């Protein structure tokens, strides 16, 4: 491995009836994880050391990639192996074409190693390769070991505890209570023993990882964050765009152009209303980037107008202050470079720091829309519900996309012109 900072890119081609594929990594010490925290995947996207991060998927034409970012310089000394895993969601790898894994130098984009898997049949998970430490140097080797037990079976083999659905148990009949016997008088010489102090409470058991993903559809458009385990930490919003016709070589992640066509500028935004009645917007326009530590507890990390940043834009909601949120509307606007969302296909993923990922696809845009409502997050006082909107809006002549989204959802804010 000539580079310390690399991208591990898992790639494949989409086709009708083929399952989705996910990349993940296991950080091992002598062949096992130390705890469930050494598993990096879509529901646990970053290792505590910062050495491995799950960056997410991109689509270009019929090709899809899912990427892991690995910084070997930040790897903890105890870790001697990083296993690179591919898992199929909704089918077997026998129906996946063009599956490969490659290692890319993060600094210059040069390909260091590549392995193509061509002989899969009934497998639902694969160890495609591994980074391993030998004589003080990191190396990579292809593996190609398949599992028919899915990601859960593979992860369990390395010591991960997986949260699996429990089968309901048959009710047991409770025997009738016995009548207590009358107490016997204690002998005169009997001394009542002193009650032993209660043992200290045991520390809470670590929660097993959840491999489930939630997909919102027209038939099931909403989900409770609490029921999926998303009760605290950061909620990251990911927007991935595929251009169908006009710009074949262009793609976008997190609401931002990230490849060939830098003229197309999309903005990921959020309208918010807090429980104290205050309202506002988080967006790049007007430098309204928000804040995580204070109101509105929503933050946009920047505005990538050139498409040069590999991480794109991130919109994050602080769920540790969910009791202060009344409603949040996530939306995206076209700032420049296109007249509508036509010919763009988008996938939205909401990734809680704790809990299952929530994703959905947008319908094809058939109207001259420059603003699209993605998801509405509402609070009932104790829980947040994510509602799939997938709603394209057409602003009237001279009306901004922000005013249009405000009017459609009744935010009732006053707007003034802004710029970047």
UniProtKB/TrEMBL annotation:
Region (Disordered): 157-207
UniProt superkingdom: Bacteria
Stated family: Belongs to the CAPAB/TerDEXZ family.
InterPro entries given in the database record: Stress/Tellurium_Resist, Tellurite_resistance_TerA, TerD
Coiled-coil positions: none
Protein name: Tellurite resistance protein TerA
Source species: Streptomyces clavifer
Biased composition (Pro residues): 173-186, 196-206
Segments forming domain TerD: 4-158
């Amino acid at each position: 491995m000539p580079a310390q900072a690399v991208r591990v890119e898992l790639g494949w081609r989409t086709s009708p009836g083929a399952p989705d594929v996910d990349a993940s990594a296991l950080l091992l010490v002598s062949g096992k994880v130390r705890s469930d925290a050494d598993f990096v995947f879509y529901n646990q996207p970053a290792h505590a050391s910062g050495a491995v991060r799950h960056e997410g998927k991109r689509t270009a034409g019929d090709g899809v990639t899912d990427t892991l970012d690995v910084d070997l310089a930040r790897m903890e000394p105890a870790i001697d192996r990083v296993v690179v895993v591919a898992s199929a969601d909704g089918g077997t790898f026998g129906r996946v074409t063009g599956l490969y894994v490659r290692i890319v130098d993060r600094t210059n984009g040069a390909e260091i190693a590549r392995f193509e898997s061509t002989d899969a049949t009934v497998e639902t998970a694969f160890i495609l390769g591994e980074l391993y430490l030998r004589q003080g140097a990191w190396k990579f080797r292809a593996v190609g070991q398949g599992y028919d037990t899915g990601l859960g079976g593979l992860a369990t083999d390395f010591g991960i505890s997986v949260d699996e659905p429990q089968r309901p148990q048959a009710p047991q009949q409770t025997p009738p209570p016995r009548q207590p016997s009358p107490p016997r008088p204690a002998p005169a010489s009997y001394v009542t023993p002193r009650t032993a102090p209660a043992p200290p409470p045991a520390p809470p058991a670590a929660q097993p990882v959840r491999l489930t993903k939630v997909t919102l559809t027209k038939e099931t458009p909403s989900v409770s964050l609490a029921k999926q385990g998303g009760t605290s930490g950061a909620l990251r919003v990911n927007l991935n765009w595929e251009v169908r016709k006009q710009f074949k070589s262009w793609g976008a992640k997190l609401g931002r152009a990230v490849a060939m066509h830098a003229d197309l500028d999309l903005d990921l935004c959020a309208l918010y209303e807090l429980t104290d009645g205050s309202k506002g917007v988080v967006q790049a326009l007007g430098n309204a980037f928000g804040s995580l530590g204070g109101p509105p507890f929503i933050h946009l990390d920047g505005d990538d107008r050139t498409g040069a940043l590999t991480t794109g834009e991130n919109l994050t909601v602080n769920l540790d202050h969910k009791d202060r949120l009344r409603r949040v509307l996530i939306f995206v606007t076209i700032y420049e470079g296109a007249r509508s969302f036509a010919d763009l296909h988008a996938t939205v993923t909401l990734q809680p720091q704790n809990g299952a990922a929530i994703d959905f696809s947008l319908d094809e845009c058939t109207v001259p829309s420059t603003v699209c409502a993605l998801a509405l997050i509402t609070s009932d006082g104790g829980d947040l519900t994510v509602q799939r909107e997938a709603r394209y809006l057409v602003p009237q002549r001279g009306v901004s996309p922000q005013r249009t989204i405000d009017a459609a959802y009744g935010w009732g804010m006053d707007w003034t012109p802004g710029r970047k």
